[in-house]
Amino acid sequence: MGDAHYEFADASAHERFSSCRPIRLINRDLGYPIAVVDDDGSYLVPPDEDFEEENFLATQTRAWLGAVQKCRRDGWPRVENKTSRVHGVGVFAAQDIPAGATIGFYNGTVYTQEAWDELERLGESRTDNFLFNLNDGAHGIVLDGCFGKGINALKFLNHSCSPNVRMQEVFLQGSWAVLVVALRDIATKEELSHDFALHTEDANEAETPCTCGAAECRGKLYAYFPWDDGDDDDEDDGNDDDGNDDDDNDDDESHNGTSSNDESQDKSDHDVQSERIEESDATI
Ligand SMILES: [Zn+2]
């Protein structure tokens, strides 16, 4: 199931995916999908608080690589696609999967944000489902999980407001990758789901009901984040991360526009992180 396999729309996409950037520094208020998390799986929020305290990425990189190598050696947890009560086809555990297990890579085709935006503008993007945006505000990547030789059963992960897996961005062996990781023990036949953490600036879309069926369901599929020009909140994030952008891309463009204003701040953040990654690579 699980090994990383990405195709690239062009050389720029490959170059960007092979760079320590982008790493997103997550602002919880933005919708927080996949990204750097702490040991408990909580999303890191403020770079200026947590990031200065520890060599976080180096530690994480070593840990994830160890987990991946174990799966390569012993086999990845088995999952299968079946009809879901939540939506269409889903991903189901074909064996018990313990909390913290790496289940596989979310693969697909990688675009630069600019190339993707152009496809959208021309109406030539092949899908707007199964997307991930990996975006540091200046070096955006779109990962289309629908296409590419490496796509696997995990592309059908459905949303839940009470998820049992998360998407973990990792920088392993010279490239970015997205790992699916169990948040808790998952029993055989249980559907895997993650929190898409969708957000929109469209008030009508914000009314879309969520049908995940979780007891803790938020009721709405999208969080409503109207983007205001001149809103100081934007300065903190520089990370418009969209996670699995299920069926809407309209908000992506404005997010990108917003985050690109934060380039200078991002650069300083990323310089620090790049050093940490290089350090970690050297010790693997
Ligand atoms: Zn829900």
From TrEMBL:
UniProt domain Post-SET: residue ranges: 206-222
SET domain mapped to chain residues: 77-197
Region (Disordered): 228-284
Annotated source species: Hondaea fermentalgiana
Protein name per Swiss-Prot or TrEMBL: Histone-lysine N-methyltransferase trithorax
Record SUPFAM superfamilies: SET domain
One Pfam match: SET
Stored InterPro entries: H3K9_Histone-Lys_N-MTase, Post-SET_dom, SET_dom, SET_dom_sf
PANTHER family: HISTONE-LYSINE N-METHYLTRANSFERASE SET-23, HISTONE-LYSINE N-METHYLTRANSFERASE SUV39H
GO MF terms, alphabetically ordered: metal ion binding; methyltransferase activity
Keyword Repressor appears in the UniProt entry: no
Basic and acidic residues bias (residue ranges): 264-284
PROSITE patterns tied to this protein: POST_SET (PS50868), SET (PS50280)
Chief location bin: nucleus
Start-end of Acidic residues biased regions: 228-253
Keywords: Chromosome, Metal-binding, Methyltransferase, S-adenosyl-L-methionine, Transferase, Zinc
GO cellular component: chromosome
A single BP term in Gene Ontology: methylation
Cellular location(s): Chromosome
